[in-house]
């Protein structure tokens, strides 16, 4: 027996009207974001409808290989997005390799922790549990990785003299870059900390809201959200730290020299 749909075509029409109002407001106020807003809205709708159909197909097949394929595609897209926003970057191969490694590490640790110790789906790779969990954590870790990379690359370019001064005084590569790394990781985690601080007082997180609307006991929904937020912050911290560490290794050499010649602007 299928569950009746809570969203009708009328609800989608309302959503389209709201986006149209935003576009109209942008044109009226000369904000210059009408095209981006419309493009983003159309892209979002297409992507979500496509993934909805893909997930429906995967969930009804119960194939571990289909689950792996979907997760692999998600990781590939996230790795690209994590490294696509920086104006100062390493050559393409190195840049996306570091973004991929950081995003993959943070997400994998958090997802496996959640599936094996908290959620306990049977089997643990069950598509209905694994894919949504990967999607939730992957997006957050991708953002943290991207922010960490962007902050470190920008700061090390700006503070080059200070880093080189520490190296000349005998500091190791990580010792000379410690301040830049620390600031990059803090910058990457700031949105997560803000989200955690506001949860329950200023806003109800999305997962908890969805579960309450679906009929779950609010206390159970709150506990579920606490676990998910803990997984998100741990995954973000791992991803941001791995990204900053790998960039530091690439921007210095075994002789302790700062190698900004390995950077390029786009």
From TrEMBL:
Keyword Transmembrane helix, does the record have it? yes
Q: Which Pfam families did the record assign?
A: UPF0014
The answer on whether this UniProt entry bears the keyword Signal reads no
Q: Which residues cross the membrane?
A: 12-34, 41-59, 65-84, 96-119, 131-153, 188-214, 226-249
Keywords in alphabetical order: Membrane, Transmembrane, Transmembrane helix
Q: Looking at the UniProt record for this protein, which Gene Ontology cellular component terms does it annotate, in alphabetical order? A: plasma membrane
Under which name does UniProt file this protein? ABC transporter permease
Annotated organism of origin: Acetobacter malorum
């Amino acid at each position: 027996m299928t569950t009746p749909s809570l969203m009708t075509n009328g609800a989608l029409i309302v959503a389209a009207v709201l986006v149209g109002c935003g576009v109209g407001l942008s044109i009226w106020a000369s904000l210059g974001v009408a095209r981006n807003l419309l493009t983003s809205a159309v892209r979002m709708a297409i992507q979500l409808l496509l993934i909805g159909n893909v997930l429906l197909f995967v969930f009804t097949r119960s194939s571990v290989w289909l689950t792996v394929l979907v997760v692999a595609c998600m990781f590939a897209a996230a790795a690209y997005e994590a490294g696509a926003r920086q104006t100062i970057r390493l050559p393409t191969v190195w840049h996306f390799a570091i973004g991929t490694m950081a995003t993959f590490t943070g997400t994998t640790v958090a997802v496996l922790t959640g599936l094996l110790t908290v959620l306990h789906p049977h089997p643990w790779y069950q598509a209905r549990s694994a894919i949504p969990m990967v999607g939730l954590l992957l997006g957050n870790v991708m953002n943290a990785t991207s922010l960490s990379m962007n902050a470190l690359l920008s700061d090390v370019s700006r503070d080059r003299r200070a880093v080189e001064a520490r190296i000349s005084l005998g500091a190791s590569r990580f010792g000379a870059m410690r301040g830049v790394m620390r600031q990059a990781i803090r910058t990457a985690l700031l949105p997560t900390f803000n989200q955690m601080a506001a949860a329950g007082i200023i806003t109800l997180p999305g997962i908890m809201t969805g579960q309450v609307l679906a009929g779950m006991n609010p206390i159970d929904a709150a506990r579920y959200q606490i676990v998910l937020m803990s997984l998100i912050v741990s995954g973000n911290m791992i991803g941001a730290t791995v990204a900053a560490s790998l960039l530091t290794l690439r921007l210095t050499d075994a002789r302790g020299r700062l190698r900004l010649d390995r950077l390029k602007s786009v």
